[in-house]
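Standup notes
- HV: blocked on the assembly model, inputs below
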Amino acid sequence: MRYTVIGGGVGCARFVSGLREHVRREEPDARIDVVVNTADDWWVSGLRIAPDHDSLLYALAGVNDRERGWGRSGESERVSAELAEWGVAPGWFTLGDLDLGTHIARTAWLRAGATVSDVYARLGARWHLGVTLHPATDDEIDTHVIVDDGRRMHFQEWWVRHRAALPARAFEQEGIDLARPSAGALEAVARADVVLVAPSNPVVSVGPVLAVPGMREAVAASPAPVVGVSGVIGGAVVRGMADACLAAIGVETDAAAVAQHYGARASGGLLDAWMVGLEDAASVARVEALGIATAAVPLWLRDADSSARVARDALALARRARSAGSAGDPDARRV
Amino acid sequence: MRYTVIGGGVGCARFVSGLREHVRREEPDARIDVVVNTADDWWVSGLRIAPDHDSLLYALAGVNDRERGWGRSGESERVSAELAEWGVAPGWFTLGDLDLGTHIARTAWLRAGATVSDVYARLGARWHLGVTLHPATDDEIDTHVIVDDGRRMHFQEWWVRHRAALPARAFEQEGIDLARPSAGALEAVARADVVLVAPSNPVVSVGPVLAVPGMREAVAASPAPVVGVSGVIGGAVVRGMADACLAAIGVETDAAAVAQHYGARASGGLLDAWMVGLEDAASVARVEALGIATAAVPLWLRDADSSARVARDALALARRARSAGSAGDPDARRV
């Protein structure tokens, strides 16, 4: 079996860790690919930073800082203090020393002509991840946020500096119109037995992956069922500030509302199935009514066991969606 | 008075520190400029490194590692270890964390369109140096070494990795033919009251500065006397491995031989005057015979006092050279 996950960042990392754990325990021959959002990558201090990718890389390698929730464990910030002295780093964005090694390597490779896919492969080769990461696109995308007073700022400034507290009016992905999906991303989607949409930020992680021209079409054309996992449980985001992003696009912070935002595949949307937390069991019928197979399960990704269970539940839901309708053939799918 | 020093690296830093000390004590209105060699700058790990400049910067700022002789004091190497893991740094070239801050800033500025002169100005503004540093050129030069077995390697590889132990056949400054002197360097030379050639490596520090097309001519045209300070004392280099460089160009490691290599200004060479150590008093007559005013003085730059004395002696020798001949008019100069 081949499982392809779409997402990025810490929520995705936790879900993929669970999927990897499930595969290790029960399907050792299965393969896991992740199509990773690149739209919150940015240039700072002359270096290319890729937050969604690096969160995945570090977490899957087991070198992430679990307490802080981002970056490397055992991190220090000696270089960052120097960059602040030189005035080349915004004071609100801290680059750890170990983390900087990654950014310097990535930037050196990119400057030497490597693609983002090449960079992913080189970074991924350091540890035994058990998972293959693909950028959604090799082309450069930069997300900017238009805030309510009309100011336009880089997504990272809005997200990190302002903690997403400035009401946002819109997100603009600069460069996305000319971007093309990476070969690895397309192949991972086309050959997937199940496509899983991670409990990542629907607006700035999952959204931009699908907005790369050709990617939404590739997912729609995949014979695999598409199962989404809600990152909203009981009306609140599990982590991060996705609620601020959802508000900006007029979507309620609610598991059913996110499913509706993604849409039923049978109606030209993304999802064959949607998995919500037990806390949202009451909304199952509402999502099912959209034409999306829905299950409410214990959704908290607390540890290896609970995360593996969530992955197993998602795959069971995929089987249910597959048997209910012939994926890839919307007319044959149950509504 | 305006004193312009030509050189780069630690030997230059010690001499300039002494000159600055002398100026502070006895000529508080005097100005010091340094025209710095850029030919051993290089790209490593995607970052632009400028060893001759940074040695000067750190030493003049008082943040240099005096015991080790290079880099920042209180240095650590966390990022460097990561770069080695990523395979983007040669194992033989260590980049300290604090030092990396400088390289990241420099690279970011250069990538954003700053000139090397701009970078010098920004780096120099952090501390009160009391000295203005100018790159010999804003154009990129890379020095390669041809070793006896015919291999060609970057100067830093030869210098740092092989500790200059592979006999060298030639040094090639890639890009130097198309380089032009920086505006700051030209101005510092043209307006100097005394031009001082630092006790830097004659082959790979002083040599490339003068080899930038137009620079040797600018020094020759300067009305100021040109006084060189020997970096060879008693037949040995004071520090570093300049002897290996001198051997490659067929010059003996000898104070008089270096003076002869630089040549008398009256005969189309560089020097009006040459200052050697007491250890080389016997060679004074030989250098004088070349048409170069020569003095033997205590030349070891041990501390603030001894370094200031060396600077004072060099300036006294400049006055002697100036009174002996009308600088800038070779015909009027004593031979």
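- HV (later): unblocked. The interface with chain A takes residues 45-47, 76, 78-79, 81-83, 85-88, 97-98, 100-102, 104-105, 107-109, 111-112, 122-123, 126 of chain B (CB under 8 Å). The two ends of chain B are 26 Å apart (CA to CA).
- Next: hand off to the docking folks.
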